[in-house]
Amino acid sequence: MSAPTAETNLAASADLIGDFVDESLLSLRNLPQQMEAFRAAPDNDGAINAVFRAIHSIKGCAGFLNLLAVKKFAHTLENTLDEVRKRNLQLTEPLSRAIIDGFDLLDSMLARAADGALDEDLTAAEAALLGRVESIAGQCTQCAAVDSKHAALLALAEEIAASGAPRAKEWGERLRALCQEGEAAAAGGVGTQGEAAAETDEGESAAPVAQPTWESFLDGPLRSGELDLTEDLRGLLELFRETAAGRYQEETGAAFLDRCESCRARISDRLPGLAAAIDAAQADFRILYHSPLGIDSSLLTIVWDRLAAEFNQLRPQNAAPLATTAAPAKEDIPAAGGPSSAAKAGATAQAKTGGGEPSRAKTKLVRVKEARLDQFLENVSRLFITCELYKDVHQRMLLDSNGAELVEEFRQINRTFSKQTAMLRQDVVALRQVSVAGLFSKFPTMARSLAAQLGKKIDVHLSGEEVELDKNMVEDLDAPLTHMIRNVVDHAIELPEERQRRGVSETGNLWLRAEATRTRVTIIVRDDGRGVDPDRLRRKAIEKGLLTADQAARLSDQEAVELIFAAGLSTAEKLSEISGRGVGMDVVRTTLREHAGEVSVESKVGVGTTFRLDLPVKEAVLVVNGLLLEQAGETYVLPFENVFEISELCEEDLHDFRGDRMVKIRDELHHAVNLSDLLNVPARDRESGEKYPAVVVGAKQQTFCLIVDRIVGHRQVVVNSIREILPSADKLAGVAQLGGGRLALVLSVPDLLRN
Questions:
Q1: 3-state SS of 143-162?
Q2: Predicted TM-score (pTM) above 0.85
Q3: What is the pLDDT of residues 655-690, one digit of tens each?
Q4: I want to staple 618 with a disulfide (CB 3.0 to 4.6 A). Which of 145, 244, 470, 726 is the partner?
Q5: Which CATH superfamily is domain 436-616 in?
């Protein structure tokens, strides 16, 4: 038996590191919430012990895998957390925030390790963060010691005053006064200096590095070793140059997407970090490119954020630094939206180790629970048994003239076969599903980073991370949720002094929650910021020419708040690179509607805003339980999930109200609409007093009464999309085969409601 080769050992190490990183990132997700839970309830030993165990485990495994930088960083955090859990150190807000920032940096270090970087030393940013943690911890320890001495002196003063000795009361009062003066000095002097020092450390380590602009890369070469990428990357910069000059056209965007493809193909083996950044930038821009919005420089800052850090690594060593003097170099700080710069160093080391041969491109993987695979295998096995039964019945039908018994047996086998195929379909759907935890995990770090840039404070609370969605849908939700989180930090959450004037905590809150039913998934984004002012939106809509003054005055407050989804409408008083162009929420609605989803908003001034993203549970094959309808000689399918009630009406039951037809069913009023009117097909003439079917349908707490020619019955159908063939068919969810070559159009009730 041959001995394992060096290449085999390297592959095994890479697999071990990959598994370690995945598990570590998963454990890091909940640590900020557990830290806040311990601060809110200091007796909650379980929360702080869980945080300590997670960091302790990361430190130990990192040492085993020779990830020395990760081990050093985690070890320092572990020591501080150990002092906190032993009650030797008080977890103050500055210390808590410093440790949480440490979790964010540890997240980035692990991502670099997954990309192949085996760093031995800490970067300037990582060392500065650890210095900040130790400085704040030292000040907390000093303050605790001072408090302890003051308490002892006060107790001594009380004891002297109560001793009854001559002048004892006077000496006790003097000692008590000296203690009080010492406390005042500590609060106004030593304590203030300590806080100032903490703020200085925090400011120096958390101060945002000056973001390099795309213009700074128009001159000078862009190289990685002997590989000259100047021409390729300058081609990508044409998008930003043309847009800034006001010359953006659709061809400009198409050329950018093509250049991303060609550039990534050239460098994917040698520079995986840059390739991943280009891939992320391309994905973000593609959403903007296919949206109905106009591309401008402000929108493109999202795309440039993906590229800036990696571009910065390709500048010559003697190039002028892009960061401010007090801040660490940009290469030491991981990019917020993509892989870190250290991925390049890892790729270089890997190339050297492997003898200069290019490494394999990354393969996309989906983790599957073992129980699901077992269930899938069991159902496939049952399906094979059923197929054999079909073969047996077929042979017996050829030989046996007694067809009645065989027909009944055939019916029973077919019934079993239908159940098994349904179970198999559910298993396939489950195999494609992933939890939203991976989608949510980046947003706390992103929100805290943006808040620090804007001088704000924010806590992010995640829940429902176990909810699962189709993998492709989770990926498509990344950009819309990024828009929303950036808007919350920039617009909704106020500066600390503004929040204090409003009588609330200076730290804002953002809640991100996922909820699931059998057929729908809802993602809720809620904040406790300033809220959306409907009057301001009305004024803005009039200024932009979207509404007349009369139209704006007739809007209810809720309808006015809904204007936030209008393209080009924003309540921001000034534009910023983060948001303020009034385009983000329109992109969110457009993206969700592509997945048959919807977004709604509720807001109250001075209380906060809640967005609800409602999505269907996407299946590999969409099977709908439907009600078959007949209208103008054609068959349609109405999904049962939208059917509330089936009734019969006649013309006398309908009443006119301000030009609309209304009907009262079970003491509730509904708009009555003929399906022929909605689909622009001929309507059948009805005789006086004739009864005809009516179906109360609805979606998202809105209902109306749909009048049809005939109800055929119930049917399960497989829905095929027709968006590519008929992109303007906005009232139809797809087409279904009924057998015998017959087709039926599947109605989309949410689209019918909008129309």
A1: HHHHHHHHHHHHHHHHHHHC
A2: no
A3: 888 778 888 888 888 888 888 888 888 877 777 777
A4: 470
A5: Histidine kinase-like ATPase, C-terminal domain (3.30.565.10)
